[in-house]
Specification:
The chain is α+β, with helices and mostly antiparallel strands and 716 residues long. It contains 18 helices and 23 strands.
């Protein structure tokens, strides 16, 4: 047997049905199997570099790289059914014993593998042995730089998944991608979804595989030409002496000017800011966008908007919230400074110009309902929530439009056509198990509303036990512990899908409307008697759900009913926002017989429209049924420290106040350190200006508040 044939048969012995589907698609694979049932494939030509197999009237040529690079005489481009049939035919020749050198190991036999040896070890060694030059040649310099940065940015929970039995399977979580390797070089890493730039993902998989095995990643070559820093406007953007600079130079000057401006705001006092400060933040936001600091640009725009609101005396403006925004911006700039000193540019710090969606193939989802909303920036929209049992995570799909756009009604959108093909409206998906074909997903768990995605509702037998695929929590202490595990750095990227939970109360208390706070309160009690409040603030979009829940005073949910809700936590307690009910043993919605009751949309007999600000008679007394589940209170020393920081920032650090505040700040830092918060021990007071020290102290307070309490500060 020739060396070429032996190598091909060794590679093909690792192919199973999934591998052939990844090589082509399921339809081509099935047609290839039928072709072989009619006529067997035969080797008609064999040389040192090429092996030709006949399938019907077509000739398929293989080289040492394997079936992914085979060529067929038919007019089809890429991998056709004849190539798949020829590969299957060759595989069967090796399995059937027609080649004595190979023996009859079976479909997934490993020729040449010693007893007790890991059959995947050889494949792993092949990937580890690929030189950096070959990786760069495969994806190009730009593709290699992208892959290197992609792997460098991977968090531990997003690390490469390594598995497989017949062959090696390398998987990424974001995007949801599996690459199968049967041997033959990097070009034979076969994806399970179609990708426009497959080469860079192959290189990323090899680099991640190397990192998982403790190897260093060869750094990419620097770009041949740096972009010039063209955005230099006003005193904050002085052009360097030579009149030009690299992108890194522009970024370094931007970080320095932003830090200076943040300090000037504290020097002046947040109660004394001017129109010029607003204009400088707006201009710097443009500079940051041009320097590809997208996250910093967003933070600067938000600060500029907040300063403008303060100048216009808008009710929602607040000097204390502005201080927190300035603090987070200062922390981001400091993190960018530290990254630049290491020569790194983490994507979670840079941000993205806009969210990008990656193809994920097919998804099996549980439709859990939807809600309409209005944002502070003037957008209205409808969001659908889903649960993926396979990935054990919540996913969402949103359609939004500017509030000024006529013809879009967020509530009416629930029963209007689209957004995906194969469905008549979002309402059709609530309470059903469905399959999304050609789905696209971004890193935060949001599904694209593109009409290229196709919905297929699963058959009735798959719908029978809808609630079985959900992960319900029935102890609120477990809920609090889970919330603590999800608390992260202030600079971590937002993870809104982690806020959703499915609850299983032991008993639903009597809901009541709290008129002073303008929100509905619905007590939920677990088996230990602990109380957790489901709260829904009154708005035009929540009005229907409030009326639905109030009607449950007369007919509460049946025992065992699940509640889908979004977690919210403040400094004093944990609470949830209700979305829908899920019945475990049958339909819960009065219409349609489905297991999910979408509280924001579904109707119920006897439900009344509520009037804003008018509580139900005697409702407030319903809240005293059981002790409320309390969150961890912020320690007094941190609460008082935060108050002192806010007062100093609001007043400003004028000459007559500077010495007094400097002494007070040192005293507060010492008190916090003595109380056990050792993070303040490492705060360098001597090497920072007073304004910088104030921002650093506030950042530490915010971070400790996030870790101890939860939602103490907003994220980008």
């Amino acid at each position: 047997m020739s060396t070429l044939r032996q190598g091909l048969l060794e590679q093909l012995s690792r192919f199973d049905e999934d591998a052939f589907v990844a090589l082509s698609n399921r339809g081509l694979y099935r047609r290839a199997v039928k072709d072989l049932e009619k006529q067997a494939a035969a080797v008609i030509e064999e040389g040192a570099d090429v092996l030709v197999v006949s399938v019907a009237e077509h000739r398929v040529s293989f080289d040492a790289r394997g079936p992914a690079h085979a060529r067929c005489s038919c007019p089809a481009s890429g991998v056709c059914q004849h190539i798949v049939a020829a590969a299957l035919g060759l595989q069967r020749l090796g399995v059937g014993g027609a080649n004595p050198e190979l023996g009859a190991e079976g479909l997934h036999g490993e020729p040449g593998v010693a007893p007790g040896e890991d059959p995947l070890a050889r494949l792993g060694d092949e990937l580890l042995a690929i030189p950096a030059e070959a990786l760069q040649n495969h994806a190009g310099r730009a593709g290699y730089r992208w892959a290197w940065q992609f792997v460098a940015d991977l968090e531990p929970e997003q690390a490469l998944r390594i598995g497989g039995s017949a062959h090696l399977v390398l998987g990424f979580q974001r995007p949801r991608l599996n690459l199968r390797y049967m041997g033959g070089g990097i070009g034979n890493l076969l994806p399970d979804i179609e990708l426009a730039q497959l080469e860079k993902y192959r290189v990323a998989a090899v680099l991640a595989f190397r990192r998982a095995h403790g190897q260093d990643l060869p750094p990419p070559e620097p770009a041949a030409r740096e972009r010039s820093a063209a955005l230099d406007l006003g005193q904050d953007h002085a052009v360097p002496p030579n009149g030009a600079g690299t992108l890194q130079d522009s970024r370094a000057r931007l970080r320095e000017r932003v830090s200076r401006l943040l300090g000037e705001c504290l020097e002046l006092g947040l109660a004394h800011l001017s129109r010029g400060i607003h204009e400088r933040f707006s201009t710097m936001a443009v500079w940051a966008q041009g320097a590809e600091y997208h996250r910093l640009a967003l933070a600067l725009r938000r600060i500029a908007d907040h300063v403008e609101q303060l100048l216009e005396r808008v009710g929602g403006a607040d000097e204390h919230r502005l201080l927190d925004e300035l603090t987070l911006c200062y922390g981001l700039v400091s993190a960018l400074d530290a990254a630049a000193a290491r020569g790194a540019a983490p994507s979670q710090l840079l941000g993205r110009a806009r969210s990008s969606y990656e193809p994920v193939g097919s998804l099996v989802l549980h439709g859990l309902g939807a809600w309409a909303w209005r944002s502070g920036s003037g957008y209205v929209g409808l969001t659908m929530l889903f649960w993926s049992a396979r990935e054990q995570r919540f996913l969402a799909c949103t359609e939004a439009r500017p509030q000024s756009q006529r013809g879009f009604n967020a509530r009416a959108r629930y029963k209007a056509a689209g957004p995906w093909s194969g469905m008549w409206a979002p309402a059709q998906l609530t309470g059903r198990v469905l399959t999304l074909l050609h789905a696209q997903l971004n890193s935060s768990g949001r599904l694209s509303a593109a009409d290229s995605t196709v919905v297929a509702v699963m058959p009735e037998q798959a719908q029978a036990d809808f609630a079985a695929g959900l992960q319900a929590i029935n102890r609120w202490s477990v809920l609090r512990q889970r919330r603590c595990e999800h608390r992260r750095s202030l600079l971590a990227e937002p993870a809104p899908m982690e806020d959703w939970v499915v609850l299983k109360p032991e008993r639903f208390g009597a809901p009541y409307f709290d008129a002073p706070r303008q929100l509905l309160v619905w007590p939920l009690l677990d088996g230990e008697g602990a109380r957790l409040d489901a709260e829904l603030a009154f708005s035009e979009f929540a009005d229907h759900a409030i009326g639905r829940i109030e009607a449950m005073n007369e007919s509460p949910p049946a025992p065992g009913t699940l509640l889908v809700a979004r977690l919210r936590q403040s400094m004093d307690r944990l609470r949830v926002e209700p979305l829908s009910l899920v019945r475990v043993d049958g339909p819960v919605a009065p219409e349609g017989g489905l297991p999910v009751d979408a509280l924001h949309f579904d109707a119920a007999p006897g439900a009344r429209d509520r009037v804003a600000g008018v509580p139900r008679p005697g409702g407030a007394a319903a809240g005293a049924e059981a002790p409320e589940l309390q969150g961890e209170l912020l320690p007094e020393v941190l609460r008082r420290f935060r108050s002192a920081l806010q007062g100093a920032a609001e007043r400003g650090l004028a000459d007559q106040q500077r010495a007094l505040w400097q002494s007070a700040l040192k005293s507060w830092v010492a008190s916090a350190s003595q109380a056990g918060f050792s993070a303040f021990d490492r705060m360098a007071m001597e090497t920072a200006t007073l304004a910088e020290a104030t921002l650093r102290a506030n950042y530490l307070c915010l971070q400790l508040e996030r870790l101890l309490v939860g939602e103490g500060a907003s994220q980008d």
